[in-house]
Every structure is written in structure tokens, then in C-alpha cells.
Amino acid sequence: MIVAAIPSPTTSVWHVLGLPVRAYALCIVVGIVAAVLIMEQRMRSRGAAVRAPVDIAVWAVAFGVIGARIYHLITSPQDDFG
Q1: Please, are residues 57 and 49 in contact by the beta-carbon 8 Å criterion?
Q2: Cα 35 to Cα 53: distance, rounded to the nearest angstrom
């Protein structure tokens, strides 16, 4: 049996202009950009305003990050509060 797997990169942090860029963060940003582009295409075909998808994405990403942090605090408080 052959098992398909994507190997982990050998380097998970790149330094660009003195700032660390992590591989998982780069994947998250690429996913957000792809989702916004697809949403924009679909919403324009339905007659939505030109900047509406970007406005929605700004709020969705912000609340997603805040919600993820709240979820983490609720499910594993020992990591942050000892």
C-alpha cells in the first residue's frame, strides 16, 4: 500500500527584510486571498457592489482571529493562565 503524504518543509521560517515569515502564516494568507478572489468573482456575477467582498473579508478575518483566540482560551486555559 502506498501512502500519500506531503512532507514538512525543511525550513519553516524565512527572514524577509529582517521580519520572520512563517510557513503556516504564509499558507493562511494565501488561503484568505484565494477565498476573497473567489468570493469577489461569485458576488460580482450576482450584482454585488465592487468593494463589498473586500469589506466582508476584512470583518470576517478579524472576527475569525478573535473568535479563534477566545475558543483557545476557553478550551485550554492552562496554556495562558497557568
Answers
A1: no
A2: 10
